[in-house]
């Protein structure tokens, strides 16, 4: 987004307004002073080379800025301090289609609205802003277009421009030298109206008290983060900063826009910036289930309410618009994860009434994803459902005349559709829809139809990797097409929507070969058994084929658990964290993807990894001596404690474990650990042990009985009986 940038120039050359920089926002850019950035929840400060300092704090719908000017700034040796504030009618991507602005010469209030395009989706949205400035006498006001400004006009309307030329435009206020050396800016925003934007600012920041707003923001953040505490046990400050920064980022998106949705009226919460669920379903939503179950419940309500009003749940949504789907209908996974972890409000299942999710309507939503193809399946639902139901995969040559979307990614879509169907089956089973359960649990095995048992993988020089059996694209007549299993890896070209699209999205077949979260035991058999599976995982991690900064790779760190090698998961994780993921400027490869990387880090350092859509957390040693989570639902505190903890990171293998003082041999645990406030104690050593390696101790996995049914291999308490 980045709508409505506010830029400041302390003075104009020769004190002449027209000599200041208007036009391109890049021409107005100012370098910041090295070492000056200071960030903490609810507060940010930055020193700028132009000789002033900026502070900002925030409320739910507004922000308050402090601009502190140095009248003796080095770049103004002979210039008069007369700060110029420009409001720019644009956003980060210059997507503005049209906009209007007005400047009140008596009060310096600037009001604006505009039509913009979403950053990764279709349609357009309206945004509104209200800016108040105070701290000095008003000297000039007006509007500007490109590199020219005028004092007389106080209103302006612009469209996008003409041909390829984008019109730069906005409003301005110039002040006399501020007596206190500071000027404040209060900025309110809204998706409803300019009047609402002004009302938001006035109600939330009525007294312009910067310290009070900072304190209030910090209080809210402390409350949000209060369920977590750690006993560092000698772990470095850098590790602690990495952990808590990651936790903080898990709570930035999705965002609560309740009351700011102009598209439909509803008594349900409205959340936006599901950007994108393909990224965040894996770890971010599961983490919020622990840290902030009330917010997660509201997010699920919002997803279901979006289905009720628009006909589909999103796989991606931002700025009130539909975002592009990157694979399956992964809101299905979010709902299944919430369901198996008892965010139901159903006293018969959970013993508490902690949510308002209507699970019958929620099931309608996920079942529609599984059964009905939308015309625009590139932005919601699934495509190719006729083929999915008839041949059991998405053909590379799929003739799909019912709807339209990206005509590629047939492998990654098929794998995600299979797991989505598993998640639909999970909810169906819980709600007593046994026939639906049988249908969808059977369809969840469709992933096997793309496994080509004799497919080899070679390097470009012809060297054989030594591994046989990979997913491959398949035609509708059941013959095979070839995609190099290494394509789309970091050693090849990047594969996405607009860049080099292939039959896998953003990762290679080498990575997607392991994406069968519900049927890991079968996949292990297909890949040659546990020992060969471990060798293949090792090869993936050490060959350069894996992009650990991309979400499909996160699960790969922990899949050794399914082959009876939980210690290998612990070892593998520590080759990436803190070496790749850390609190340095380069310590977040790729980007955080709305908390996806942050939640991966937070879980890993906690000593757990969620299998989203299942009541399963895989266990590894935490990065601290002790980590505690207080459940906001039950107010009970769960504790994971390391015995023989070594802050240097040598003692990383679990030798034995106890749960509430009783011997515990499983390499995984369920969500009741958090709800009941259990204590998991892990005794560590220097070498891998037999802990968690027996068949009965492995994480749950489905195993095919025959072509019409499944049984659960491990963990009957998981829910299949």
Automatic annotation (TrEMBL):
This is Glycoside hydrolase family 92 protein. GO terms for biological process: carbohydrate metabolic process; glycoprotein catabolic process. One of its GO terms (cellular component) is nucleus. Residues 197-685 form the Glycosyl hydrolase family domain. Residues 2-190 form the Glycosyl hydrolase family 92 N-terminal domain. One of its GO terms (molecular function) is peptide-N4-(N-acetyl-beta-glucosaminyl)asparagine amidase activity. The lineage of its organism: Eukaryota, Fungi, Dikarya, Ascomycota, Pezizomycotina. Keywords: Hydrolase. It comes from Polychaeton citri CBS 116435. Pfam families: Glyco_hydro_92, Glyco_hydro_92N.
